[in-house]
Amino acid sequence: MASAPFIPVIPAGGAGTRLWPLSRRRRPKFLLDPTGVGRSLLQQTVDRLGPLADGRPIVVTGAGHTAEVGEQLGGAACVLSEPEPRNSMPAIAWAAAVVEREDPDAVIGSFAADHLIGDEEAFAETVTAARRAAEAGHLVTLGISPTHPATGFGYVECASGYEPAVGRPGTPSADGALPVTRFVEKPDPERARQFLASGRFFWNAGMFLARARVLLDALAEQLPPLAAGVREIAAAHGSPEYEQLIARVWPRLTAIAIDHALAEPLAADGRVVVVPAGFAWDDVGDFAALARQLREEHPEAGGARSVGTDDSDARALGTATVQAISSRATVYGSTHRHIALVGLEGISVVDTEDVLLVLADDRAQDLTALVRDLERTGPEHLL
Amino acid sequence: MASAPFIPVIPAGGAGTRLWPLSRRRRPKFLLDPTGVGRSLLQQTVDRLGPLADGRPIVVTGAGHTAEVGEQLGGAACVLSEPEPRNSMPAIAWAAAVVEREDPDAVIGSFAADHLIGDEEAFAETVTAARRAAEAGHLVTLGISPTHPATGFGYVECASGYEPAVGRPGTPSADGALPVTRFVEKPDPERARQFLASGRFFWNAGMFLARARVLLDALAEQLPPLAAGVREIAAAHGSPEYEQLIARVWPRLTAIAIDHALAEPLAADGRVVVVPAGFAWDDVGDFAALARQLREEHPEAGGARSVGTDDSDARALGTATVQAISSRATVYGSTHRHIALVGLEGISVVDTEDVLLVLADDRAQDLTALVRDLERTGPEHLL
What we know:
Two copies of one chain form a homodimer.
Chain A: E1 6-12, H1 41-49, E2 58-62, H2 66-73, E3 78-82, H3 88-102, E4 107-110, E5 116-117, H4 120-135, E6 139-144, E7 154-158, E8 162-163, E9 168-169, E10 178-184, H5 189-198, E11 201-211, H6 212-222, H7 224-235, H8 242-249, H9 258-268, E12 272-277, E13 281-282, H10 287-297, E14 305-306, E15 313-318, E16 321-325, E17 328-333, E18 338-342, E19 345-351, E20 355-360, H11 367-377
Parallel strand pairs in A: 1-2, 1-4, 2-3, 6-12, 14-16, 15-17, 16-18, 17-19
Antiparallel strand pairs in A: 4-11, 5-13, 6-11, 7-10, 7-11, 8-9, 10-12, 19-20
Helix pairs in contact in A: 3-6, 3-7, 3-9, 6-7, 6-9, 7-8
Pfam family, one (chains A, B): ManC_GMP_beta-helix
GO biological process, one term (chains A, B): GDP-mannose biosynthetic process
Domain MannoseP isomerase/GMP-like beta-helix (chains A, B): 326-374
């Protein structure tokens, strides 16, 4: 039996303020190549999904980024341009409606544009298993085996236990999927530890698969005007009034994340399954995560000149020259300056033409407060 | 009785590599204004000594710095230009020989060009007391009351004790001077503590006063060719063969510090006295010292925008804008970039057009190794 066609959907939104000043309003995180592999996170995402797809992936992005997204991807994806950001559900639903018009039974899979995936082969295997579960009519999420009690991620609880030691489900169904009982938002440290100990929780990486019609019909139950709106826009595609229609309908769509709009209510109804992911994953959400990635997952990335025979471990990405003594640090240089580091421990340095950031990795989360302050008081052009 | 004329001598040499990249080969420490008061360290030194002097202060500096020294000082000092650096004794002796030609009984006082003095009035009083001791025929040094067991300074031991609690000598002679028993080079921490506890040690700030002829006659005993050489150069001043003579004689002069050439041997003979200094002093030898100065002695210097109500204490000198969160840091900015700091503790940031330095203040001494590495491997233009 031929399986249903698979079309990846990539909502490319979000500023990534915790990677400022690498990321800016005009150059958000998904357009960056923060680990220095030569491809942006968006390009890596399309590269990864393209070979698994039965049609061009659909990228949904803000009007302000459409041009650069098109430049980065060439013809490798179909780009839908949002007049304004309405969070992830309208973006994914719009793409689902576009796919539904072609083939209502096709499976769409939504993947973030700015995450890192460790093992491409395992990723392909997991997506294949998730497609089978989606063809069976489920809303499917990919569950990342947690490696530590993270408080920065949401969690997915499954009904059956799995073996934390193996990092794999204990009693998967035939297609490798486990029933989901609930989605939980970022927990405090104590709850995160309990989650890990229970062996029933995965990290929620925001990856969802479903048949296009299944997804939109479920959305029509939860938020009828949102489902109707994106179906109206998709139906008008190619007509003379298309642009006018988008401009009128889009701003009225409920701004909501797919987690709240679909995943949580459907999980409560027993209609969501999770397929355990066999690959490493990171949302590179801040400079601490990025430093960890560069140290552990991309040891080949970047170099720096260490002085003497000390235990310096300085990483350098970009154009700057780095000279370090007694330092564990990461440098992102977009200038051609000489950067000297002495006695630093767990520090990130971002050297751009107009902004210099020096940040202690263990305070990486606090960068948000600094960017908020800049939004309030300016200067605007640095954002 | 009219006192002898007093002529200050200011040897302006030394690169100050531990303040790199603020200080460079072409712009050594004494030409900088590291605390942002609007005058270079050299200008501050001349400003301080000028009013106490009976003639223009004599600045002795390298040929490569003569132009900029002249620019900074205008006509406020007489500048002697060394063909090449020979350490402090030849420079001071040359100036002494120039003064001796005018008035052998005049008192010269040698002061570093790149130190900070805390209290100008107390400085003037101390110099006046030291002049009286010098007129009595002694080699006089100014002794700084130590505030902590520093290992980065040399020490002066005096015969009589003084009260550490008061920071003043216990049994000064009529002119406030105490006999010196020896000069000690930078001690290890244990010895430094013993020095402090004994109540008989001062920091050696390298400030010496003596009648010109007394100093040169003493030098003639210790190093006859050196004394003869500078007297020969001074005698030729104004003659047609002056330049040729300097070029021939100067390179043969013994390169030696005044401490080794005069202070130590004369102390052993009981011919040196110390006048306790009533002023705060700092050689601002590295970024840790500079950060301490800016925090404790120059609280008015520089500003930075702190985010939120946290306990940030970030100082900013120069042209950069600094925005800080949860940081105790010092920023020296010569660019116009926006500098953001997150979670730093005791960090100095030096932001120049071609070099960026980020340094942990408690490893400030290690900067020397980094600069040495740069001298070895280049690029040369950064030095």
